[in-house]
Design brief:
The chain is of the alpha+beta class. The protein contains four helices and ten strands; from the N terminus they run ααββαβββββαβββ.
Length: 195
């Protein structure tokens, strides 16, 4: 036996619409992520140190965008007087070697793969009202501002022309829901918290 229901039947349509809406309202009820909660979470990770990473050595294909960045870095570091830079051709590639001079400032940190020059800080400004629903949760958009440039800031500018102190930039934080709480999973910030 087959029973047919008319789609114009108001009771059936009402049931089809009311049940999913009610379930969504209960699921998103009082435990939605508020702007204030997101701002409190994200603010803890700021300010961050914006730094320039200088490799001990690097290779790039001549004429590529990576090669252009290495040339800009070499020019800026040579102007500073803190690094000795050598270049050598290897077929269609060019190799760059960066060596820290003894007269370089103590603020330049050396690591396993090169050097790190603190150029400025980025501070948290505010969360934007926009929130994007993702497959795993919510993506929150927020603003940061570049502040407190250091003596290494001109080297940062050589690699990122057009960046200005005081300028804001968008960043994103990903949140996942666990029970009735929202947990920040990560941000697209690539710099470390200032000490």
């Amino acid at each position: 036996m087959v029973i047919y229901h008319s789609l114009e039947d108001p009771v059936t349509l009402r049931r089809l619409i009311v049940i999913p809406v009610l379930a969504a309202a209960l699921g998103c009820g009082p435990s939605h992520l508020t702007r204030r909660e997101a701002e409190n979470d994200i603010r803890k990770d700021y300010p961050v140190v914006v730094s320039v990473k200088v490799p001990e050595s690097a290779k790039a294909i001549k004429g590529s965008s990576d090669h252009a960045k290495l040339v800009s870095l070499q020019e800026a570091l040579t102007r500073s007087g803190w690094f000795a830079v050598t270049r050598s051709s290897e077929g269609d590639r060019e190799a760059f070697t960066f060596k820290l001079k003894p007269s370089a400032p103590k603020s330049i940190r050396s690591g396993a793969n090169g050097f790190e020059l603190p150029a400025a800080e980025a501070e948290f400004v505010r969360c934007l009202p926009r929130r994007d629903i993702t497959r795993d949760g919510i993506r929150v958009t927020y603003l940061i501002r570049l502040v407190h440039p250091t003596e290494h800031f001109p080297i940062f500018l050589a690699l990122h022309p057009g960046v200005r102190v005081g300028e804001t930039k968008e960043r994103h934080a990903s949140y996942r829901r666990e029970g009735r709480n929202w947990i920040m999973m990560d941000t697209d910030e690539s710099f470390k918290k200032a000490q």
